[in-house]
Amino acid sequence: MNYFRKESNFWLFCFPVIVLICIIGCTSDKVQDDMFSSVTLSFSINGKGSISQQSGIFELNSSITIIATPEQGYYFDRWEGFEQIVEAQEYSFITSRDLSLKAIFLPIPEVSVEVETYTPKKMDSNPVFMIRNGGKQAFLSDKTGVKLQTWNFSSNLGNDIELLPDGNLIGLFKPEEVSFSFGGYGGILRKLSPSGDTIWEYEVNSENELLHHDFEILPNGNILLMIWERFDTIQSKSLGYDGEGPIYLEKICELNPNTFEIEWEWRSVEHLIQDFDSSASNYGVIADHPEKIDLNYYEEENGDLMHANGLYYDTTREVIYLSVNFYSEVWVIPHQYDTETTRGPSGDLVFRFGNSSAYKGEDERLFYSNHHPTLVEHDLATQGNFLIYVNGSNDSKSIVYEFILPSTFDSNPSNWNTPEVSWSYSHPDLFFGKISGAYRLPNGNTLICEGDYGYWEVTPSGEIVWKYNGGGPTFWRGYVYP
Predict the structure, then answer these.
(1) From the CA atom positions of the chain, what is the Rg in Å?
(2) Which of 25, 32, 240, 331 would staple 277 via disulfide (CB 3.0–4.6 Å)?
(3) What's the domain range around 303?
(4) Distance CA 388, CA 393 (A)
(5) Segments of the chain scoring below 50 in pLDDT
(6) Residue 56, helix vs strand vs coil
């Protein structure tokens, strides 16, 4: 009897304990489940601004959107705390673990009066080498308008000048006297030290030849030069010219700056065609020979028939892109042959684009005056594409075009097609009928030089993120040196 009473008492004591243990165990399991089904997000701020979310506990695998809003005088730079830096001001992510996130706001720096638009988050950070057109000054300016360095020259520029990696400069300059001249004339190619002292100079300035506009430094150190070549009345008539001479045609020479010898040349006069004088050796059907240059395409009383204004060397294809303003097109000139071979058919154009009417073609005309031919160098996404500034002399609207060129150029014109336009930019306020240019920046934006205004920087989507108003004097081009 006592045995059963003791056993009963034992179970009366144990039952509540067992129930309590079960309750505690279930509660512990629930707490543990909650711990594994939620995450903790904490937010903090560096600088002045606000965040759309508050710190707290969030369900696991839930979608969270955070927005950073800067206060006046600040801009949002980045989020810190993710596995990688996040630069998007509004960012969405799926919660997977505890995070401590920080929004970084930076003060907008003071900018000079020349800077009319300044969007630091979206701009390329490299300073711009700015060139006064035909003036006596070039300078390197950061995006706030601070001139990091200024170069003052004793002679007026003959348009292009470039800053070299060692701090020296090479540029075109105008001599005191010339026998003839047109817009963009130079005459002297000069290398300068960082302090402005002349290291060497080379002059092409005579009754029959004049250096002008642009030059290009080749990988071997030689330099391509653009030269006007004069032909008197008798010579121009023998070429089949339908007007009165003299006339001035384009020539490209390759200069060795160590010996000052000309190692290669291409002369447009050796690649002409015309349908005016059947007795001339270059007489032919223009539409049948797009590889030839129609001598009588453009009429100009002063005899400057072509007025090329820029060139660029393509090391991969071994060709020269020549921007020819009065023909409103780009000529693609072979460079892989020696001078003697180049004088013959092998030196004819291997491609041309922009204005098929220059050879009586029927393709859509895109160019109406053009400047600054260049290939994209620094932006990996568009590297190798071709950029050019089209002035828009027909409708007072400038356009920057980007083209995808053929991987190789076929010398047979029947296989030529207008290259694909991969991007273009225009704006109601963007127009100048002379000079100007475009340059692709390392971050994918495009630097545009509007000759009578200054500089624009636009994103691939066309957003204007920086503008520099030069305040009157015209600008030739702008370069960056990453």
Answers:
(1) 34
(2) 240
(3) 115-479
(4) 15
(5) 1-8, 10-11, 16-35
(6) strand
